[in-house]
Amino acid sequence: MSETPYPQHTALSLAASGVPVLPLRRGKVPFGNCTVCADNACGGRPNMKTPGPCRCASVCHAWAAATTDPAVIVSPAWAAAWRRAVCVGYHPGGAGLTVVDLDDADAIAWARTALPATRTVPTTRGQHWIYRGAMTSRNAVRPGVDIKSTMSYARYLGSGTGAMADLPDVVRALAFKEPSRARPAPHVVGVPAGAGGGECPHRTPVYLERGIAMAEQRITETSSAIHATVYGAFLAVLSRHGRCGCLTDAHVARLFTAAQSKGETARHCAEAWTNARTTLGL
Description:
Layout: H1 7-16, E1 21-25, E2 29-30, H2 70-73, H3 76-84, E3 87-90, E4 97-102, H4 105-114, E5 119-122, E6 127-132, E7 138-142, E8 145-148, E9 154-155, E10 165-166, H5 169-172, H6 205-221, H7 226-241, H8 249-261, H9 266-279
Parallel strand pairs: 6-10
Antiparallel strand pairs: 1-2, 1-3, 3-9, 4-6, 4-8, 5-6, 7-8
């Protein structure tokens, strides 16, 4: 018996509001590909980069099958899947949403102190915090916390409570892995002092320049997720040079200029820079 009564009716209601849906079977996982599409042999959705079903009529390709088309949702192949479904899944990124999946009480306690309040939906063991805006998905960003947005699916558990907030930079930052630490330079060479008034005894001027140039390139070459890319670049630079005082106003201006060339405002640049410093405890 389905966990969600009449899951097909729920799916149609969600689809009408612009949320791409798909049936989930026992275990709360998508239905497997049909024999034609097994191992992506059909080539319909290489690497599952494009949302939507392939040309076969079955519920294939996991999250990429999610659709808002009522004709697909009530089609014979999908109707058979709905009869076996235990609940409704949806593609958050396809609806312009991000779900912060909090698995336990410790994760919820962390979120209440670290994240802006937003719409909250109770789950079996924890909560879903839903924000307006899409981003890269990533599991295990910290103990008991997963990010579900683009190229991912979430279980629909009701509309929840509270007003939905815009996706904040602090959540976007969770999708970025902590930058690896470079080895100390074999020779100590001082670099210009920044606002901190100190020197950078563990880096060379060449290393600093290369880091700034790489951050500029990372920003200017991106074609999507501009906010997240800018924040990630700021975070990477500050994680290496934010504590030693070697960053100058000229370095920061170069990064802001690169961000503004991609359409970011000066205000957003300043906020992203401040948020990155806060995240790193600077």
